[in-house]
Design brief:
The chain is α/β, with parallel strands linked by helices. It is about 25% helix and about 30% strand. The chain has one domain.
Length: about 150
Amino acid sequence: MSFKTDVTQVLGADAFRKGLGALRQTDVAHVSAQRPREIKGSADVDASLAGALPNAARWDYVVGRIQGNIHQTHWIEVHPASASKNVHEIEKKLAWLMAWLRDKPLAKYPRDVVWIASGKSAFNARSPDIKALAAKGCRFVGGHLHL
């Protein structure tokens, strides 16, 4: 099992980046790693699939991480969180991600699916919309994700 091999098989030879290198300049400030050596690489899912799936509600990124012997993926969406309509947009993206991932090698990893607010957030952890989203498998972390 190699995260890099699985990423290149699914998203193409140019998709894999070392560390958090796949995150766009506008999004990189929203993610940090306490132990950078645990980060095995990343890929911009959205950019990699834009040509093949131009009308899909594509997820933004996948980051591979290893803790001890456990390889895992963090599926990251950096998206506005200022209104209820944003929750519905994330639900649509989450449904796309789960359907797309179903038969891919990247599906075999334990995963953490995360929504990061790209700006000010109208939500907190007790919000009914956020609780409903968590029940579907996506957690909201506010404006920053600490890996």
